[in-house]
Write a structure and sequence with these properties.
Blueprint (H helix, E strand, L loop, with lengths): L3 E6 L8 H9 L4 H11 L10 E7 L2 E10 L8 E9 L8 H13 L5 E4 L4 H9 L3 E3 L7 E4 L11 E2 L1
Parallel strand pairs: 4-5, 6-8
Antiparallel strand pairs: 1-2, 2-3, 3-4, 5-7, 6-7
């Protein structure tokens, strides 16, 4: 059975992310290694008010991860930041990223009015635009934003200058 299960975790056994760390590193990404390092040192455990970490499982194996933090760059406490989204290449294009992001967005709506993120990956850009994020041109810290206080079902982004 290939059922995908998304789980919000309160404690992360970082050793279970070894395969994702290796896969992401082989693709030239460092953010999953950074997730593990930050979690182990306590720098970011996704455990403050309004924060969460979601894991995607397939056949009891971790195949994806995505976190939500209060945005450390924002002056407002009403801005959340998407962090460390990664899906194993073996299971991409199965809707796991969208499902993880649906979980993050639902959680974010409880505490924030806006979600932001930063990516320079063109494939990620297309993905985020497809789920309703907009391009944000006026920030060093953010490349995309999603207004949570508006009904956002357009599934296509806007460019904000």
């Amino acid at each position: 059975m290939n059922e995908i299960i998304i789980q919000k975790v309160n404690h992360l056994d970082t050793h279970k992310l070894i395969l994702l760390v290796e896969e992401s590193a082989s693709e030239g990404f460092r953010h999953i290694k950074r997730l593990v390092n930050d979690y182990e040192t306590g720098a970011n455990k996704f455990d403050k008010e309004g924060e969460a970490l979601f894991i995607a499982y397939q056949n009891n194996e971790i195949v994806g991860v995505c976190g939500l933090n209060r945005d450390p760059y924002a002056k407002s406490k009403e801005v959340g930041r998407v962090r460390r989204l990664y899906i194993s290449p073996r299971v991409r294009r199965l809707g796991i990223g969208r499902t993880l992001m649906d979980s993050v967005i639902a959680e974010a709506r409880k505490n924030y009015k806006m979600l932001v993120l930063r990516t320079d990956n063109p494939i990620a850009d297309v993905f985020y635009l497809s789920i309703g994020f907009s391009v944000k041109l006026d920030s060093e810290n953010d490349s995309h934003l999603l207004q949570l206080d508006e009904i956002n079902n357009n599934r296509g982004g806007t460019i904000y200058a």
